[in-house]
């Protein structure tokens, strides 16, 4: 017998269909007819069948007032003895006077009042200012993942208990109401002036956490509809954004990506409409609700003046949420311990979506720095690593949302990409299609995924003999961490390739005996092929394998760069380097994002910055020259070249490249003299900042400051960032003096933005903290609290590893221990972590920079 964990439902009652009626009340004045402002009175009728004989129906409800419960069996009311609510796991238990009959259908009708809450989950409220009218507008939205549907209506709130959802939403006439499915019409609400009932079509079988609702004064842009004639695709947003055309791009892209995924898997998106909604406040980036995905507005709207990097991010987030319509929505994880089946698969799918819509960004190249390396980083540290398939007891120990981390997304996505590496793209695609076809409208565990992909892998002979895909993949998903491969030359031509667990911090070697089943792709001088197809496997009962290398050859392991492993000691790399250009772009993307932590912390003091600069700058400048020089990218260029160039310029200027600074100065001076701004949008921040940082006279600083006062919103952030880059103590102080005035900064929110930017300027850290201490009372008075200090401290913490920062923060805490007790703790622990990180790696890295000649395989990848 399988025991059910205490926090899970026993599945003695299985829901088939919900009919939800609800009225979110956003305005006062309806107390007598509907209810008070921020209440959401409603009822839910659940069709459910009994799977076991039980006298108790257990479902979920949280922060809901229950008014009445009736249970009906074949038109007869079963007396309810009482209803109890249990806090810890939000169980709502309906105790009946007689036992349910297994196999029979029951109707459970519950009337309740839930709440349009302030916290941004469940059914929640938020507001924005309508830019056309200046009015504050309230709206209601939802976020149910992972355990919040139970806050809007009583339900069986587990992803495996899928049912059909239907809804009737009460709203005022001047609002729109949206649900997972399309509206089927509306009618006047009897007895309540100016209100209507809007009814919605039934959904497909779905999990409760994907339920969604919006009541708002939003408008929409609609996709052309040519690619997906059966599905109407729209993007909703506050009306002033729609007028600016800011939702046109996302509606079009959403339609293209929905049709791409449908064709890719031969499994169409199943509902008649798909809406993306841009809301001004959202706790997460976006949420993939079935048919009604909700996005933080900055991640969905695209303006004429948006940068290329913004276009990439918007497309990336849409690709992700739409990918979930298949992985997560059509096939859901059985329970949250398998959440990587939703997030990891979708992380992988994102790049297929982007490849189809924005190939100019070369998305699969970006995968390496954006996903693979970040997954490895978290997974390498025993303090943050955990198995991809989450242990049930461990899951209970943390807040359920903390498990939505880089392991679930980026390790998950990288392992799917590794599977595609050894199975090949066509086989992987067939495997995933098989999984979708078999499991659709159901929920899955990871073995379901492995079983379907295994069938295709065996047919195509892509797996080692007598081995299933589960044999290969279980070690990767059930064990925390990943292996490190080492290649060692024995004599002339024999190579030993060995595996051990990779651990990034010192003194934790006990787990090094763990083993994985590893596909190894190789390239040699004689066979310089960089296909991801494995040349051989290291099995999970082997520590190493022996290879014979042709004379005078080099060897590169993980040649396809698809494996979820770092490689040490690739052999004779200098030989390889001589044959190949060092300027390949993807090398830079990967290398530079890996160097970010080092850069932030090394920049604090000159002793450490100089070796880093000496190592990095010649390489960066060489890469810039190879792509056509500092001014290679002109206005209106698009795609990956723009992003790469922006990244290279950013590094070059931050490393005080003379060429870069000269280029920046010329551009800003030309703007100053001619009044014409000719800096491409993606480079504005870096160019303005470099000019301000190296401005000795203060002339540029004053010019940028003047521009800021009159600039349009679309330029303000770049200018303020630039000002905050000043390296001049006097000018930094003058900026700080502005935060409590209205001379430069329009309002307090601009002051907070300035403090955030100043945080990344190492030169400004001590000056800023000192300023806070000296002007403590004025700041608290002006801002009505300590928020600006906390914002600044959090922004500077990632850049600090010296004790002076901690010293100043400690002084602040002593000014008002009560206020600061918890709010500065994250900044303090971040600085302490930086100090530890530097103790662990600082010396080695400095030595590496100084030696300047070691070149790691990790940094190297052929463009594919
Ligand atoms: Zn996701």
From TrEMBL:
Its cofactor is Zn(2+). Zn(2+) binds at residues 320, 324, 343. The keyword Metal-binding applies. It comes from the Eukaryota. The record marks 409 as: Transition state stabilizer. It comes from Orchesella cincta (Springtail). One of its GO terms (biological process) is peptide catabolic process. Residues 562-832 form the ERAP1-like C-terminal domain. The active site is at 321 (proton acceptor). It is a lipid-anchor; GPI-anchor. InterPro entries: Aminopeptidase_N-like_N (IPR045357), Aminopeptidase_N-like_N_sf (IPR042097), ERAP1-like_C_dom (IPR024571), M1_APN-typ (IPR034016), Peptidase_M1 (IPR001930), Peptidase_M1_aminopeptidases (IPR050344), Peptidase_M1_dom (IPR014782), Peptidase_M4/M1_CTD_sf (IPR027268). Keywords: Aminopeptidase, Hydrolase, Metal-binding, Metalloprotease, Protease, Zinc. This is Aminopeptidase. PANTHER family: PROTEASE M1 ZINC METALLOPROTEASE (PTHR11533), THYROTROPIN-RELEASING HORMONE-DEGRADING ECTOENZYME (PTHR11533:SF294). One of its GO terms (molecular function) is metalloaminopeptidase activity. Belongs to the peptidase M1 family. Residues 39-210 form the Aminopeptidase N-like N-terminal domain. It is found in: Cell membrane.
